[in-house]
Design a protein that fits this description.
about 150 residues; mainly alpha; 2 domains; 3-stranded antiparallel β-sheet; 8 helices; globular; UPF0158
């Protein structure tokens, strides 16, 4: 199974938001979505849960869960590695400042804040992040292709 660049881009962005769990169907490779556990936990009553169930592919998944391969979001360690690889590709004063941020407390928030004040780095960061996340999704699709053989 091969995905287009647009499909890969959409998948990594959805995974990063964390509102949905994404699965590929073994037989035909189609993508299905289920709500994240957080969305389920925040459905306070039966009516909200029924509405949530109506918006997703619960029925098919619940019938045959072994027919689906879950695409996983990056964990915090992997996301940190993406930031670190970006910083390693920089030089000068900004690189030193970013290394200090990554070595300190709350590196994700501080890194994002730092980039908000350095618009010259922001575009490079977004390109780097997009490439890393796309590669991450592609690797999972390769695992899916191996799994379905």
């Amino acid at each position: 199974m091969e995905l287009t660049a647009s499909q890969i881009n959409g998948i990594w962005q959805e995974l990063e938001m964390g509102l949905e769990r994404l699965f590929l169907h073994k037989a035909d490779g189609r993508l299905i979505r289920l709500p994240s556990q957080e969305l389920i936990d925040n459905s306070w009553d039966e009516e909200e849960m029924e509405e949530l169930r109506g918006n997703y592919d619960f029925v098919e998944f619940e019938k045959n869960p072994d027919d689906f391969f879950e695409l996983e979001p990056m964990d915090s360690r992997e996301s940190y590695e993406v930031m670190l690889s970006f910083v390693e590709g920089r030089n000068g004063e900004n690189q030193r400042k970013m290394f200090d941020i990554l070595e300190g407390r709350r590196p994700f928030a501080k890194f994002k804040n730092f980039l908000s004040y350095h618009r010259d780095l922001q575009e490079d960061w977004f390109k780097h992040k997009a490439k890393c996340y796309a590669d991450y999704v592609k690797a999972q699709v390769e695992d899916f292709n191996d799994w379905r053989k």
